[in-house]
Design a protein that fits this description.
The complex is a heterodimer.
Chain A (H helix, E strand, L loop, with lengths): L1 H6 L10 H6 L1 H35 L4 H13 L2 H12 L4 H24 L3 H9 L4 H36 L7 H9 L3 H29 L12
Chain B lengths: L37 E10 L6 E11 L4 E5 L6 H8 L7 E6 L2 E2 L5 H6 L1 E4 L11 H5 L1 H5 L4 H14 L16 H13 L5 E5 L7 H18 L2 E6 L2 H7 L2 E6 L2 E6 L1 H6 L4 H7 L3 H7 L15 H7 L3 E4 L4 H11 L3 E6 L2 E7 H9 L2
Parallel strand pairs in B: 3-8, 3-9, 6-7, 7-8, 11-12
Antiparallel strand pairs in B: 1-2, 1-4, 4-5, 9-10, 12-13
Classes of the chains: A mainly alpha, B alpha/beta.
């Protein structure tokens, strides 16, 4: 393939053909939305399952080992292999990327959720119980707000991971900016490849920034630490 | 401290605790005034099952009077903290009955029970995500007080524990250890509990701050009259703070007595060893010059003072300080003065007699 490109005579192919981009704005918008909604859907499903897993692990401690091992094994499956394996089972459609992406997201997210609640200061929690909070009140007023910074950190890593993996799914024509890359690779055309890569990175950066801002918003007390009074 | 240090009389607190100190737990009517605020009746706590089981507490019997400041003291693992936590059901007994305001704690739903029992722990255990005001308002807000009632109460408590009101809008991390401990006390007292439990409240603060906080606690206790159960491993703290002191040894009580009684008559070798040395001097340290019965001022006093045959001591001094001043000056007569005013005289013999009068 490289030899073929090198052998080409005539005008050198530019990295980006802006005219092509101009003609594919609709396509670009569609892929971007697809990329976004695949990410959000996989994240939501991942959060739901990871919450369930983390709760089970915290409730029945002995399950933590086996469950962690199981999710880690899932994570060792290369993403391309997982997409390829699911395709014949589920056919072309959104089911394959969403299942694959949620699987990876829960592997990343579950340890964060577990740590978020395990690392809370036991004396703070005991004080809350001793003040007369019921278990539900304590969870809402103390456990959850104090766990939020770690939860948000987990969501941040998970989101960025998913955004990147959506692109891999695109290689199989499963949506998002990966479709552009797939298209570009299949005909040695750099413009859609660049478009796909840049688009994917921009979404990842924007999502990351969003979580940073949100993380500050849910933990205003963590900024007080530097302003200690004598 | 005043009442806690009076000689061997049991140091019952003066009646007249403010009306706000009602015992909320009592099912109907008002509690009998002589009813113990907290009572342990044959209480046992065993951890584990079968052969591996170990008693943390075995058949504990103890009554804490209403308004009393009772200190549980003993080495680690003696069951003092376990006993304290039985009161608000953070731990449940395996035998016997724990009563608060006459009611078996096991018959009261835990959340309701605990809202009527203040709890202060070592490092204050404040909620880092909430402001100081919100921390103090924890129990009132659980009890559904109105916004205005809560705000009023929070400011009242800030003043009570000596906390600058400007700090109310800050978060705990902005406060020093001593300030956090004050907030912990304010939070525990917010809803006017029947009983205040304090688990090693001062062991995480430095000695200077600790002494200050101890003085504040005594003043506070005098003012609000709440029954207090305080756990410490520090015998000096116990003797300094307690109206009565309960000395624990593994799982049982070695002695329950006023600080003076404890120092004067340790029940056994274990208590004696735990108390350590200088017991008589420490008894004198429990008395202010104010509490001493002073002798008359003789007309020749000016001459004696000028000649240096007597020593002048301020009225803020304890009996122990006076003895020290006598030892330092080589005189055995001291004149107690309050500013410019001379109050009377005290002799070394009188101080010695004081320790032997029953």
């Amino acid at each position: 393939m490289i030899a073929a490109i090198a052998a080409q005579s005539g005008p050198v192919e530019p990295l980006i053909r802006w005219r092509w981009v101009g003609h594919h704005l609709d396509d670009l918008r569609e892929r971007a939305l697809e990329h976004l909604w695949l990410t959000v859907a996989a994240l939501l499903i991942g959060v739901a399952i990871a919450s369930l897993l983390a709760s089970v692990m915290r409730r029945w401690r002995w399950t933590a080992g086996p469950l962690t091992a199981a999710t880690t094994i899932l994570y060792t499956i290369p993403s391309i292999a997982l997409f390829a394996a699911l395709l014949p089972l589920l056919g072309v459609g959104y089911a394959v990327p969403i299942i694959a992406l949620s699987t990876y997201s829960l592997v990343v997210l579950t340890p964060f959720l577990l740590a978020a609640f395990d690392d809370l200061d036991p004396s703070t929690l005991e004080a809350a119980t001793a003040m007369g909070m019921t278990p539900v009140q304590r969870w809402r007023r103390v456990d959850l707000p104090l766990a939020m910074p770690t939860i948000v950190a987990g969501l941040r890593v998970t989101t960025v991971t998913i955004v990147g993996l959506v692109t891999v799914g695109g290689l199989f024509g499963l949506g998002g900016f990966g479709d552009f890359i797939d298209d570009g690779l299949s005909r040695d055309f750099s413009t859609p490849i660049v478009l796909g890569v840049v688009g994917s990175v921009v979404i990842a950066l924007v999502a990351d920034l969003m979580w940073v801002v949100l993380g500050r918003a849910v933990a205003p007390w963590q900024r007080d630490r530097d302003r200690r009074s004598p | 401290m005043s009442e806690g240090s009076t000689a061997g009389t049991g140091a019952v607190h003066a009646p007249g605790a403010p009306a706000e100190q009602e015992l909320h737990l009592t099912p109907s009517g008002s509690p009998r005034p002589d009813e113990p605020a907290v009572e342990f009746v044959g209480v046992s706590k065993r951890f584990g099952e079968g052969a591996g089981a170990a008693f943390a507490i075995e058949r504990l019997d103890l009554s804490v009077r209403s308004g009393e400041l009772m200190v549980f003291v003993g080495p680690s693992g003696c069951g003092k903290t376990t006993s304290l936590r039985l009161v608000n059901r953070l731990i449940e007994p395996t035998g016997g009955v724990v009563k608060v305001a006459g009611r078996d704690v096991m018959t009261v739903p835990p959340a309701r029970l605990r809202r009527d029992i203040g709890y202060v722990i070592q490092q204050a255990g404040l909620f880092p995500h909430r402001t100081i005001a919100q921390n103090i308002a924890t129990v009132p807000s659980l009890l559904g007080w109105s916004r205005t009632d809560i705000d009023t109460r929070v400011e009242e408590l800030a003043d009570l524990v000596g906390l600058d009101r400007a700090l109310l809008s800050r978060r705990p991390s902005a406060l020093s250890g001593g300030q956090q401990q004050r907030v912990g006390v304010a939070r525990a007292l917010a809803a006017r509990p029947s009983v205040l439990l304090m688990d090693e409240p001062y062991s995480a603060v430095d000695p200077v701050v600790r002494a200050h906080l101890q003085d504040e606690l005594l003043a506070l206790h005098e003012r609000v009259g709440t029954t207090i159960l305080l756990v410490t491993h520090d015998i000096d703290e116990a003797v300094r703070l307690g109206d009565r002191v309960a000395v624990f040894t593994t799982g049982r009580l070695a002695q329950v007595a006023t600080p003076d009684d404890l120092l004067a008559h340790p029940a056994d070798a274990y208590v004696e060893h735990f108390l350590g040395g200088d017991r008589q001097l420490r008894r004198l340290a429990l008395r202010d010059a104010r509490d001493l019965v002073l002798g008359p001022l003789s007309p020749s006093l000016d001459r004696q003072l000028a000649a240096g045959t007597v020593v002048e001591v301020p009225v803020e001094m304890t009996g122990r300080n006076i003895v020290d001043a006598m030892l330092e000056s080589g005189r055995t007569i001291a004149v107690v003065v309050d500013g410019d005013r001379r109050l009377g005289t005290v002799t070394l013999t009188e101080l010695t007699d004081l320790l032997h009068l029953r």
